[in-house]
Design a protein that fits this description.
mainly beta; 15-stranded mixed β-sheet
């Protein structure tokens, strides 16, 4: 999710092959019940606005869709125009989210980066990456095995918490995910850090579970890249999870990543989620 603003920032300030990766944070089980989310986010670096994005999620009894869009703003737009979209859809099998497709397109500096994947049973059956990653003998190659037992970045942003109690709690952070985004295969590990409170300008205000995030690249990366080494060693990345009404699914409200040039921050300004009954009542 929200690859766009941070990948644009990555190209022009961080030069990091892994920053967008950390935006795709964790999946841990089934999407349950029904609910919708309409969220808006801002991205900043060292306190300077660099991007904005929107995210819409629709979860039903047997399927889900998620779509995000974003663009460069503020200072970043002066040095690099850019925008993009990403989307995923899947089905629920015995309550478990199973991805069917994932796509992402980013256009910056008159260049387009595109990824499309067809997924079945956690395995990538078809995928297209344009343009291909530039040849580099030091890049860890992606093998067929790396395309099995994976989850796409958008689906990975849906964190389902089991049980019947309040889903916003330490259990939300007790998970890991094996993610493939078409160019890189990596693992993300969450660990509970603390509980906190948030208040969006529109929509949700209440508790969030704050998780530490640990990044482990597996394939498709160049080990000697300084940014990769930095992300691997970082112990201060945080993910703040807020609930989607009508479900036991939590999604990112805030993501923070310390960088050598300042704090990279993605945060919701609007976080409006509605269960089916509430949505139906508005139309009656």
């Amino acid at each position: 999710m929200f690859v766009v603003p941070f990948r644009l920032a990555r190209r022009h300030t961080l030069r990091s092959a892994g920053l967008a990766v950390v935006m795709a944070c964790m999946a841990g089980g089934a999407a349950q019940a029904q609910g919708k989310l309409d969220a808006r986010y801002t991205a900043s670096l060292a306190g300077i606005p660099i991007g904005k994005g929107a995210w819409v999620i629709d979860i039903s009894d047997d399927q889900y869709t998620a779509a995000a869009s974003g663009s460069a703003t503020g200072l970043l737009r002066v040095i690099a125009s850019g925008q993009g979209t990403s989307a995923a859809r899947g089905i629920l099998v015995a309550g478990q989210p199973v991805a069917v497709s994932y796509a992402a397109t980013i256009t910056a500096d008159k260049k387009t980066d595109e990824v499309r994947m067809a997924i079945s049973g956690g395995a990538v059956k078809e995928y297209v990456v344009e343009p291909p990653s530039p040849p580099n003998p030091e890049r860890v190659p992606i093998t067929e095995a790396h395309r099995h037992g994976i989850i796409d970045p958008m689906t990975a942003s849906l964190v389902r918490v089991s049980g019947t109690g309040d889903p916003v709690g330490p259990e939300a952070c007790q998970r890991s995910a094996s993610i493939f985004d078409g160019r890189m295969r990596y693992d993300l590990q969450l660990a509970f850090k603390r509980m906190d409170k948030v208040k969006a300008e529109k929509g949700y205000q209440g508790s969030v579970a704050v998780c530490s995030v640990y990044f482990s690249p597996i394939a498709g990366y160049v080990p000697d890249r300084a940014a990769i080494k930095y992300l691997i060693s970082s112990r201060d990345m945080e993910l703040w999870l807020a609930p989607v009404a009508g479900t036991r699914v939590l999604v990112p409200f805030r993501v923070s990543i310390p960088t050598p040039v300042g704090l990279a921050l993605l945060e919701a300004t609007q976080f409006i989620s509605t269960p089916p009954k509430a949505a139906n009542a508005k139309t009656q």
